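Review box. Two proteins, two foldings.
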Amino acid sequence: MTALIRRHLRPLFLSLDLNSVVRDSPWVEAMNWLKVVFGKKQTLSQRPLTECPKGTLPKRLRPYLLEFDESGEIIGLNAGRYEFWLCRQIRKRFQAGEFHLNNSLRHRHLSDELVPEGKKATVLAEMNIPFLHKPIKTQLRKLESELHRQWKAFNRELKQGEVETCGIR
C-alpha cells in the first residue's frame, strides 16, 4: 500500500489547498508538515518525531505508527503507516465536512452556499417568489381552505364509490 499511496495519493494531497472549519486542526498542520518534508525531497522517517504534529498519533495506534528498538525505545515514525493513517483521516474529515476546498464544487465550505445578511432582501426580490410577498397567516389560511376543499371532495367521491379502495371496505 505504501507504494500506491506514494505514487497516487501523495501528489494529490500535496497539491490540495485544504482549509478546515476547526481552528488549529492538527490534521491541517500534519498536511502542511508533509508538504514541507516532501518539498525538501526527504522522507518522514528522516525527520525527528518531535516535528510530528501533536494529536495525530493516538495512544492506541502508537505501537503501529512508531518504530521501536530492541529495548522498546521509540526510534522514530513508521513513515508508510503514518502517511496511510493521515490519508484516511483526511478522507474521513472531508466526508464529515470538517475540511473544504475553496475552488471545489463538491467540497466547499457551507458559508459559500449562504447569502450574506446584507444581500438577503436583494436576492429574495430577484427570485420573485409570489408567496413571499404575502403575510404568512394569509398564506396559511389559503392553504388550509384548499386542503379542506380537497378533503370534502375526496369524502364525497369516497361515499359515492368513485374512489378505488384497493379492496378495503
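Next protein.
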Amino acid sequence: MKIGIDAIAFDVAKLFLPIKTLAEARNIEPEKLEKGLGLLKMTLPDVHQDTVVFGANALTKLIHDNTINLSEIARIYVGTESAIDSSKPIASFLANLMEQKFGENLLSECDVVDFTFACIGGVDAMQNCIDFVRLNPTKKAIVVTTDIAKYDLNSSGEYTQGAGALAILIASNPRIIAFENQWATSTKGVFDFFKPYRTLSKEAITGNSNNENWFDNLEAEIEIHKDQPVFEGQYSNQCYMDRTRNAYFSFKKIKNTSETIYNSWESIVMHLPYAFQGRRMLSEIYALDAKNAMVSENDNTTDYQNKLKEISKTDDYKSFVTQKLQPAELASSIIGNLYTGSIFMGLLSTLGHFYDTKKEVSGKKFGFLAYGSGSKSKVFEGTIQDEWKLAIAKVNLFETLENSNEIGFDVYEKLHKKALKVSVLKPKKEWILERIENQNPNLIGARYYKWID
C-alpha cells in the first residue's frame, strides 16, 4: 500500500521587501545576502493576517482546487511554531472556518491538533498522519503548516523573515509522492533557538514599586511572549549539521546499506531557513558518505572544518548542488523562511521547477532532511508518482509569487512594529482576522475571522 501526498496548496504573504533594500538600510553589502545566502526577497504579513489566516487560505485552496469532500477527512493536523494561543490549537480554528465556508458539521468527527517542535513540527504531523492512513487506508488526512518567521530589527536573523502556509492531503495511492516506511531520527535537547516566556516587573513598567490602578488584578511580574526567538546563529548551524548528519547515517543503518545514499536521490529537499542553508550544511554528509570518504571524523577540529570548506568550493560539489539542491532553493530565495513549511515549500519548488522545465521525474526518489531547533532531525525518502504533474497543475507556484507586491522600508518597519492599523493591500478572496474581542470578560482575546470575496 502506497501512502503519501496526494495534493498540495499554499498561501504566502503578498507583501515583500527586496533584500537589497534591507541590506542598504542596515549597511550590509547586498551581494553578501543575495549571492552569499541566496536571498532576494522576504515576505511579510499584512495587518489582517496571522497564522490562522495563512493556514485557512492554504486549506481553502486545497479543498477547492481538488474538490475534496470534507466528510472524508479524518484528521487536520497542524505544524507550527507561531501559535496564537497556549491552549486552543490553530487546527480548531481551521476546522471552524472550513465549516463556515463549506458546510456546518462537516468536520464534527475530524480529529484536530497542533504539533510544535520548531521547524520540524510539520514533518512530525505528516509522519503521524501517514502512519494513521497506513493503518486506515480508506481514510484521508490533511497536514497544514503555517508560520510567520519574525526576527528583531537589526538582528542577524532579520533578513531571513517570511510568512505563509501549505496544506497537504495525505492519502493512500497518492498522486504526487509515496513515502517509504523508514524514518531516521536524531534528537538532543539544546537551546540553539527558542521562544521563551519572558517577564517584566511592575516597577520596570511604571517606574515605581507602587501598584497603579490598572495593575491591581495582576501579578508582581507581567509575563509576555514575543514572536521573535532567542537564538545563537553559529551554534544553531552546528546543531543543524550535527542532528542532520546523525539522522542521515542512522538512515543508512535502517536501510542496511553501505552505498552512498544521496546518490540514489534525484533531488534532496532540506529545511531552508535561508535559501543556501542546505548547500552549506550538506557538505559534511557529502564528504563523509562519498565512495572514498573525503574527510574523517577522527581529523582534528581545525583540519576537519578546513577540509569541508575546501570541498564546498570544488566543481564536483557545486555540480552536486546544482543538480540535487538548487530546485528546492528557488522559492525560498523569493519567500524567506516558512519555519515548518520550509521543507514542504522546498518540495513544491522542486516539482514546480521540473513542471515548468518539462523534466520527467516519475519513479525517481527524493531524499528529505528535516530539522527543527531544540533540536531534532528526521531523514526519510519518497518516490514521485506518475500523476504528479496533473496533481500540481493548478498550484502555479512561481506565477503566483511573481504577483507579490513590493513595499518600502518605512512600511516594513511599521508592519514589524505593529504600528499600522489599516492593511496595506485590500483583502480579496481570502480570510482575514476581523477582530480580537476586548470587551466581553468571558471572551477576552478571542479571535474572529471572516472570508472576503
